[in-house]
Amino acid sequence: MRYRTLGSSDLEVSEISLGSWLTYSGGIEADQTRACTKAAFEAGINFFDTANVYGQGTAETAWGEILSAHPRDSYILATKVWGRMSDDPADQGLSPAQIAQQIDASLTRLKTDYVDLYQAHRFDPTVPIEDTIEAFQKVVEQGKARYLGFSEWTPEQIQAGIDIAGSELFVSSQPQYSMLWQAPEAEVFGLCAANGISQIVWSPLAQGVLTGKYKPGQPIPEGSRFASAEMAAAQDLVYSEETLEAVRRLVPIAEEAGMSMPTLALAWVLRRGEVASAITGASRPEQVHANAAASGVELSDDVLAAVDQALGDVPITEPTLAPAAQAGIKHR
């Protein structure tokens, strides 16, 4: 396993990290969660990413039980705040009161005194950005988080935060990024790199589409991610015949290069120096080890050119899960 420095922080994170969306939030049994986490440590993965809203706290609770058995300095823990945590519509967002409440709740579930990285899960246009930033800074001042990050912020939102608090406010950005969704390369990567902010990318395997297990002209396999009602909205964006045909063209490229499809997809993401880590999900230990094997894999120019040719114009023009409330930045 190789490690990369996370932005301007002193955190050295594994190139492959383990996430908990759609898995440890109730999608798999506790024994599987424990086995996958054990496999992560065995593979050299030291970076674990979760969020308060995953399973309404279930994912944080699961990892709180498991990770608390390990020395706190043996892993880097990240969580997020923004999503609704109860039936109360007001119980969400990035207000100072919500951030203060949710960081304490997350720490309790995670059985730790601090998280290494606390992230805004999305942008909140209903709260003055100055209030949000001050609330996040207070979390750091109180020692409840070491560093701050954000997920799926637009270039305008990122720049607004930097203009208010300087380039050292954030150390990480968490966008969706894969062969099938390359939009962050256009503006987000460059803006962040110029301000010492690394990328921690989610869905590098496009919710499993880039594993090659979905075949064009065939029904969605039972028990797969896209067979779930939760992913129905994403099917039209990623799970399409055009996309699956492009992925089918990628398979011989991976085979000729002597690697699996997941390794090809993860190595493609990690080819960019702006990317500190690729967040992967797993329901079985062998998946964890297979994903970890992509760390350090270098793709030749010939392979990269073949990938570009295979994809053609396929990369989708909309993210799988659209960033919330991109329009408007509220100020005091």
TrEMBL record:
Domain of life: Bacteria
Keywords: NADP, Oxidoreductase
Listed name of the protein: Aldo/keto reductase family oxidoreductase
Gene Ontology cellular-component annotations: cytosol
Upper classification of the organism: Bacteria, Bacillati, Actinomycetota, Actinomycetes, Kitasatosporales
Annotated SUPFAM superfamilies: NAD(P)-linked oxidoreductase
Gene3D superfamilies noted in UniProt: NADP-dependent oxidoreductase domain
InterPro entries noted in UniProt: K_chnl_volt-dep_bsu_KCNAB-rel (IPR005399), NAD(P)_OxRdtase_dom_sf (IPR036812), NADP_OxRdtase_dom (IPR023210)
Source organism of this protein record: Streptomyces himastatinicus ATCC 53653
One protein family per Pfam: Aldo_ket_red
Family listed: Belongs to the shaker potassium channel beta subunit family.
UniProt GO MF annotations: oxidoreductase activity
PANTHER family: HYPERKINETIC, ISOFORM M
Record-annotated NADP-dependent oxidoreductase domain positions: 15-310
